TrEMBL record:
Full protein name: Dinitrogenase iron-molybdenum cofactor biosynthesis domain-containing protein
InterPro entries: Di-Nase_FeMo-co_biosynth, DiNase_FeMo-co_biosyn_sf, MTH1175_dom
Domain Dinitrogenase iron-molybdenum cofactor biosynthesis: 13-107
Native species: Archaeoglobus sulfaticallidus PM70-1
Organism lineage: Archaea, Methanobacteriati, Methanobacteriota, Archaeoglobi, Archaeoglobales
PANTHER family: DINITROGENASE IRON-MOLYBDENUM COFACTOR PROTEIN-RELATED (PTHR42983), IRON-MOLYBDENUM PROTEIN (PTHR42983:SF1)
Length: 141
């Protein structure tokens, strides 16, 4: 089974980042369900992160092309979630966890599945705490 985690540097010792579409790298873990062990680890650059728009959809396609079945992340947009769901990829919240720990927690059924995408921070003035924002730092929808 292939498990992907959103990471900044990549690797089992890195932490799962909160963002999906604009994450720096994906750490791909090939997990053997029968032996209950990690067989291989690969770090893949997220080429979608620098796109002006549609980064989540492009990152979703990359995940699908890599044959990933499980995605460990923090937050994910609704369009990216729709693409992943249509391909049968399940998404779990592991934000801030060490990748190795998050994979272990997933295999033990300890992670919460994310079933719908969120819009993330408000854009424009509202996202910077301007009129219509939530407090000084904006807010999550």
């Amino acid at each position: 089974m292939k498990i992907a985690a959103t990471t900044s540097k990549g690797g089992l010792e890195d932490n799962v980042t909160p963002q999906f579409g604009r994450t720096e790298k994906f750490t791909i873990v090939d997990f053997d369900k029968e032996m209950k062990e990690i067989k291989a680890v690969e770090v893949v650059d997220n080429k979608a992160k620098s796109q002006p728009s549609g980064a989540g959809i492009a990152a979703s396609q990359l995940i699908i092309d890599l044959g990933v079945e499980i995605l460990l992340t923090g937050k994910i947009g609704p369009k990216a979630m729709k693409v992943l769901k249509s391909a049968g990829v399940k998404v779990y919240n592991a934000e801030g966890m060490n990748v190795k720990y998050a994979v272990d927690a997933f295999t033990k059924g300890e992670l919460e599945e994310i079933k719908t995408g969120s819009m993330g921070p408000k854009q424009g003035k509202a996202g910077r705490g301007g009129r219509g924002g939530k407090g000084r730092s904006g807010g999550w929808n």
